[in-house]
Design brief:
Number of domains: 2
Helix content: 40-55%
Number of strands: 10
Shape: globular
Strand content: 15-25%
Structural class: alpha+beta
Number of helices: 18
Distance between the termini: 47 Å
CATH superfamily of the largest domain: CHAD domain
Low-confidence stretches: none
Mean pLDDT: 90
CATH topology of the largest domain: CHAD domain
CATH class of the largest domain: Mainly Alpha
CATH architecture of the largest domain: Alpha solenoid
Length: 503
């Protein structure tokens, strides 16, 4: 058995030959070029997919090989999976040749053998380079070709950097050298995953919400920290790819949510891993969230479209909304601008930085013995204190005895969002029914603040309207603000009366 450790870079443009790029910073030991034809197999019920097993046959220069890849993990663009390879002389795979101990518990081996059928194929040219960088040996390959399923195709254009012998840190260094010369994204999807989606006509879709991190009570502090970051990074990469494939603006909302979760996780655990060690990540996250700030405007415009549709009988109000809507839509970034952001050098640097952080590269050797001891404490001993700290802050700023006006609510939007992110990080350590009941009124309150922010946005943009139209719009806004504030006050007072689920 081999365990693959590789970084995948997805190329969008290539002007400089890879051989020249590699020669600039490392020793190229050997190189070759071959055409690879792979066929992937599964049952009609996708049993292998269910068990996160990949099965393929590969033919190169007349020699056949069958490969089993078992469940592994993806950290940023770095893939780690156990892999088993055996020679074959026929086109079809033969699972009985593999050691029976490799199959997961409960795997229906006999039924799978009887039902296997080809599902999709990959056909690509592979340029392979064996390189030496510092004291590390790696294999760098450039794959160009297609994934095919039925009459559908997707292009393959990617670089994979696989560790042969040496340090993972050097693998990232090699990837950074290559990324500096091309427009790249770190790839989280394998060829097999892309092939399954193509075969099943199952494109990526945006999640309805950010969700919560699946923590377990037995986890340590450091396990939980890394689980929260991994969840955020997977969510980010899923929606990055989703947006690039579909242009769905909801995917960008989730990109922003994932970035906020990642940034919040670094802040939430700063008492265990000093914030100074992650300052570069904080800076890049702040930059990227700033670049996506316009998504808020798009959110407001979507609400405007909904409002406009309801006001057709009120001609003057309908025209006012239409005027603002048209002006603001014309100023939004084009899709090409957003796509360019995902191959920006700073975005790539952030993704590399997160991948290295998840492996502990920037911080594991810099902590004191006391800090290391704290990291291996059970997270359940710390979670209640972290949640309580945030709760006291929000209950102090939005006290029960005070009536909160729209401006103050909008001013506390970021604070409430951060408090809810703490719950998204740590909430699953506690009973789900109590947690969901407690969070519900605060989620409603945040939705109300979003509505208030839209009304404030409208108030800012109405200056281009005629005075009489402004008067009509202001009257409508006053009624809407009064209505939503009444509902929000009910949610806030209800939330303050509930017993926190972590106590």
């Amino acid at each position: 058995m081999d365990t693959e450790i590789e970084i995948k870079l997805l190329l969008s443009a290539s002007e400089k030959p890879l051989s020249d790029v590699l020669a600039d910073f490392c020793q190229v030991l050997s190189s070759d070029k071959k055409q690879l034809k792979n066929t992937y197999y599964d049952t009609p019920e996708r049993t292998l997919r269910y068990y996160d097993i990949g099965l393929r046959t590969r033919w190169v220069d007349g020699a056949g090989e069958q490969t089993i890849k078992l469940s592994g993990k993806v950290v940023g663009g770095m893939h780690q999976r156990p892999e088993f390879n055996l020679p074959i002389t026929h086109d079809e795979p033969n699972l009985t040749q593999f050691d029976s101990k490799i199959w997961p518990e409960g795997f229906p081996f006999g039924a799978v053998c009887l039902q296997l059928a080809p599902l999709f194929s990959t056909d690509f040219e592979r340029q392979k380079f064996q390189i030496q960088y510092e004291n590390t040996q790696a294999e760098v390959v450039l794959d160009q070709g297609y994934i095919s399923a039925a009459c559908r195709q997707q292009p393959i254009y990617e670089i994979e950097i696989e560790l042969v012998d040496g340090k993972v840190e050097d693998l990232f260094a090699i990837a950074k050298h290559i990324a500096a010369q091309y427009q790249v994204r770190l790839g989280s999807q394998s060829k097999a995953e892309r092939g399954y989606r193509l075969a099943d006509q199952n494109p990526l879709t945006a999640y309805q919400s950010l969700g919560s991190v699946p923590l377990e009570r037995k986890m340590t502090v450091v396990d939980s920290h890394l689980a929260c970051l991994t969840y955020g990074l997977k969510t980010l990469q899923h929606h990055e790819q989703c947006y690039l494939q579909t242009g769905d603006i909801v995917a960008l909302y989730r990109v922003r949510d994932a970035l906020a979760l990642i940034r919040h996780t670094l802040w939430l655990f700063k008492g265990f891993i000093p914030k100074s060690l992650s300052q570069a990540l904080h800076d890049d996250l702040k930059w990227l969230l700033g670049e996506l700030k316009w998504v808020d405007a798009f959110f407001h415009l979507n609400i405007l479209v909904e409002y406009q549709g309801r006001q057709k009988k009120k001609k003057e109000l309908w025209q006012a909304l239409e005027t603002i809507l048209n002006e603001e839509q014309s100023q939004l970034p084009q899709r090409e601008t957003v796509e360019a952001l995902f191959v920006d050098k700073r975005y790539t640097r952030l993704m590399f930085g997160l991948g290295e952080w998840l492996l502990g590269i920037p911080w594991k050797d810099t902590l004191s013995p006391l800090e290391k001891d704290t990291l291996v404490q059970p997270i359940i001993l710390e979670a209640s204190a972290l949640l309580e700290r945030d709760w006291r802050e929000i209950s102090k700023l939005l006290p029960e005895e005070e009536t909160i006006e729209a401006e103050k609510y909008i001013g506390q939007q970021g604070l409430l969002r951060r408090n809810l992110l703490t719950g998204a990080c740590l909430g699953e350590l506690f009973e789900p029914e109590e947690r969901l009941e407690f969070r519900a009124p605060w989620m409603d309150l945040l939705q109300g603040i979003d509505e208030l922010a839209t009304y404030a946005y409208l108030q800012e943009k109405q200056t281009s309207l005629a005075p009489q139209t402004q008067t009509v719009l202001q009257s409508w806004l006053a009624r809407k603000i009064e209505s939503v504030l009444l509902a929000m006050e009910q949610s806030r007072l209800s939330g303050l009366k509930l017993e926190p689920y972590w106590r």
